[in-house]
């Protein structure tokens, strides 16, 4: 099982959380943004992304990649 985590694989994200909060964007303004966090079922890797605009849930899941 330890060797499996070293082999490249397509992540299967689960426990996906999508939230909309205010975030300070790189330009220095506070805007409504979309926060996405998820965990890979196979290797346990975690991902956390912030999009500095309000996107739909479908689009956020598609961009999770």
UniProtKB/TrEMBL annotation:
This is Uncharacterized protein. It comes from Pantoea wallisii.
């Amino acid at each position: 099982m330890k060797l499996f985590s070293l082999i490249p694989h397509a992540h299967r994200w689960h426990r996906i959380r999508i939230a909309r909060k205010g975030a300070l964007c790189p330009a220095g303004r506070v805007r409504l943004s979309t926060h996405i966090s998820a965990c890979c079922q196979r290797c346990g890797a975690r991902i956390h992304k912030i999009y500095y605009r309000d996107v739909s849930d479908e689009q956020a899941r598609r961009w999770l990649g």
